[in-house]
Write a structure and sequence with these properties.
25% of the residues lie in helices and 29% in strands. The strands form 9 sheets. It has an 8-stranded parallel barrel with strand order 8-9-12-15-16-17-18-22, surrounded by 4 helices. Strands 23, 25, 26, 29, 34, 35, 36 and 41 form an 8-stranded antiparallel beta sheet that branches. The chain has a 7-stranded mixed beta sheet with strand order 1-7-5-6-4-2-3, covered by helices on one side. The longest helix is centred in the N-terminal third of the chain and has 26 residues.
Length: 701
């Protein structure tokens, strides 16, 4: 006999609903329990990621633990990482060779995983964090990933990663011939490039301007060779150069940061610096920026120049590869050009070096053979070196396509700022001009992008060049490391990349603070501040309470900042008195000066990178004036007592060439904050914003 169920329909519906809720709750709990950490954002993106659960936490008690591997290499990587973590977090971690504990960072060399290659690494975050690699470069790149993850917080999602580059050469080319860059800038760039896992820094050491911008006169045309040279007195530029000692030290620094410096000396074109020393070597047919290849002295001179840097027990060029130029010579002399190229390759290779050249052998077609073995080509323009033809000849190529990757600041041709989205979506080193090679093609060993400072005298600064290069470096870091593989849209990448900086201890972009609402610097000077070091200056009655009072060129105060970069606003009250003469400084850093009197014209202005500007305004003496200066990558504005006085932007340089060429004049300024004073008078109520204030906001000041 079957007992009847005494539940009616409403009861059944309630029970069914409860059952459904229980099932859904169980599913949600199971799903939550199975969730793992998503891949964290770094540049370039990790090639493989397997998420764990929970977070690794860096603490002040964490240690850097040296595990297995070469002691010297481990200690070098650990020492740099220790300094970087201290700069980034304030933590002063100990370096030990013990068993790891919770919160430690473990470094090891001699990883058995051959799939990561020479520059790859394995990265694992659990209770402690471990980085292992086959070689120093891979280990060092792993520490850069760690630092990027620690930029904004001291916790890292647990998980494991395998990371390795798609391409062997990841390069940036900087023209220091037509625009001098300080050795400190190059040192910072070594660190910046390694932070984004670039491994190749090509420094273009000589070049010249275009004759048409110098009254069609070769004697007036700017040229420079940037390295100390004893063989030919007078060759080294007077307006900026590097000593041999500095250049050797730069290469040593680069090696520590897993980067190779590629020195480039460009000839037989772009050679005006050489022919100014030996005018008899200048080509009568093609111009003084061409060496006369029919003159035996041309080859002799270039061999002697390279010999000075390659010979001896301690050569100046310490790396394994050297660039000999060979760019853009007139093709009417193709056979002579090819012979010169081949003989220079032989000469440099005799010192045990691999040679790099600019692609020119399609442009300079001929029968004279040019060596192939241990020669790498910058494939920059397919009309000069057809990449398919170069592959058939056996050359290894570095994709450096001008139409994609050439920055020429404020020139009106090529790119002022690269097209980042187009590069991210469509380019990889496999793309050389309009030729696309198949993935894994052995002829393509990597890629390079370049900054050329063609327009000598247009006012471009180191900071302006970096403003163009830095975002390009972020995008191209991804494309040269990961190739065509991207894990997010460009729009997502572009938003996320802005949260990654330049790396610890460098601040090329002059960033101060993170808020854009309030002043990031505000000094009333009403009382002494321990962060302001006063030298022969004092506090006196000012516009509002107390002010800083100065008594001449040796009277100043040191602030705890160096400078502020684009976009910014700086305001202050000033009351100068009795300042005869010129070149009187108000604010100063190692990069720039704001002057009460620019030169001998008595106008308020500024100087940087060898350029001098004024606002066509004289600050009145013995009265309080409110000054506001704002700056962007496009120019600099001066406001007097809340009203716009002068805008230095959108001005042009008019040349006298037959085309009456006009070029944009660059009148930008990173505002210097390292030192204030150096004049007779007072400054009060200094305020600095890391944004542009509107005209209305400035008026209220």
């Amino acid at each position: 006999m079957i007992k009847k169920n005494n539940l009616n329909l409403p009861h059944l519906l309630v029970l069914a609903a409860i059952g459904t809720l229980i099932c859904l709750s169980s599913y949600t709990m199971a799903q939550t329990a199975s969730q793992t950490n998503p891949q964290p954002f770094v540049i370039p993106a990790l090639r493989e990621w397997h998420g764990g659960k929970g977070e690794y936490l860096l603490k002040s008690s964490s240690r850097i633990v040296l595990s297995k591997g070469k002691k010297e290499a481990l200690e070098k990587a650990a020492s740099i990482l220790k300094d970087d973590i201290h700069a980034q977090t304030g933590y002063n971690l100990k370096i030990v060779s013990k068993s790891p504990k919770k919160g430690d960072i473990v470094l090891s060399l001699g990883d058995t995983d051959t799939s990561i290659g020479e520059e790859g690494y394995n990265f694992k975050a659990s209770e402690y964090l471990s980085i292992s690699a086959n070689n120093y470069k891979g280990l060092f790149y792993g520490t850069r990933t760690l630092l990027q993850l620690l930029e904004h917080k001291k916790s890292i999602p647990q998980g494991s990663a395998k990371d390795f580059p798609e391409f062997k050469v990841r390069s940036f080319v900087l023209d220091v011939g037509r625009k001098f860059f300080s050795i400190s800038f190059l040192q910072d760039y070594v660190k910046l490039m390694s932070y984004y896992k670039f491994n190749d820094f090509q420094i273009h050491l000589n070049d010249n301007g275009f004759k048409k911008y110098f009254d069609e006169n070769w004697d007036k045309t700017y040229s420079a060779f940037r390295l100390e040279n004893e063989t030919y007195p007078g060759l080294t530029a007077k307006d900026g150069s590097y000593t041999k000692k500095e250049f050797i030290a730069l290469q040593a620094l680069a090696k520590d940061y897993a980067l190779t410096i590629i020195p480039e000396i460009d000839a037989p074109a772009h050679a005006l610096a050489f022919t100014k020393v030996k005018p008899e070597l200048g080509s009568k047919a093609y111009g003084m920026d061409h060496l006369d290849l029919k003159h035996p002295g041309s080859l002799e001179m270039m061999k002697n120049v390279f010999k000075e840097y390659l010979s001896g027990d301690q050569p100046v060029f310490t790396g394994t590869e050297v660039h000999i130029g060979t760019d853009e010579y007139d093709k009417k002399e193709a056979e002579l050009f090819r012979a010169f190229t081949d003989q220079m390759i032989e000469h440099v290779q005799s010192y045990g070096k691999t040679v790099r050249i600019w692609g020119a052998l399609t442009h300079a077609a001929g029968k004279t053979p040019v060596r192939v073995k241990n020669v790498n080509i910058n494939a920059w323009y397919n009309g000069y070196a057809d990449p398919i033809e170069m592959k058939k000849l056996g050359y290894k190529q570095i994709s450096t396509p001008d139409g994609w990757l050439y920055i020429v600041p404020a020139a009106g041709y090529y790119y002022d700022y690269l097209n980042y989205k187009n590069i991210y979506d469509k380019w990889s080193p496999l793309q050389v001009g309009n030729v696309r090679f198949a993935a894994g093609d052995s002829t393509i060993i990597g890629g390079a992008f370049a900054a050329w400072n063609d327009i000598v005298g247009n006012g471009i600064s180191e900071k302006d060049v970096n403003d163009r290069v830095f975002p390009a470096m972020q995008v191209l870091s991804q494309k040269m490391w990961g190739g065509d593989k991207t894990i997010m849209t460009y729009e997502t990448f572009d938003a996320e990349r802005k949260n990654i900086g330049e790396g610890p201890s460098i601040n090329i972009r002059g960033k101060i603070g993170r808020t854009s609402q309030s002043p990031v610097v505000a000094y009333t000077f009403d009382k002494r501040n321990k962060n302001i070091q006063v030298s022969q200056a004092s506090y006196a009655n000012g516009k509002k309470g107390k002010a800083l009072s100065f008594t001449g060129s040796n009277s100043f105060a040191k602030l705890p900042y160096k400078e502020i970069g684009y976009d910014y606003t700086v305001s202050f009250w000033i009351n100068p008195s009795d300042n005869p003469g010129g070149n009187i400084t108000l604010f100063k850093s190692s990069h720039s000066e704001v002057k009460l009197k620019q030169g001998n014209n008595g106008k308020l202005g500024f100087s940087r990178d060898g350029y001098h500007y004024d606002f066509d305004y004289t600050v009145p003496e013995k009265t309080w004036t409110h000054i506001t200066i704002s700056g962007t990558a496009k120019g600099t504005n001066l406001y007097i007592n809340g009203r716009l006085q002068k805008s230095l932007k959108d001005n042009w340089i008019q040349y006298t060439d037959k085309d009456k060429t006009k070029m944009r004049k660059v009148e930008t300024l990173f505002f210097p904050l390292e030192q204030i004073g150096g004049f007779n008078g007072m400054i009060d109520d200094l305020q600095v914003w890391n944004r542009l204030l509107s005209d209305e906001e400035i008026l209220t000041l």
